Amino acid sequence: MESKVYSISEIKDILGIGRTRAYEYVKKVYEDKAPFRVIKVGNNYRIIKSSFDNWLDGSMQDIS
Question: Which CATH number goes with the domain that contains 33?
Answer without folding.
Answer: 3.90.105
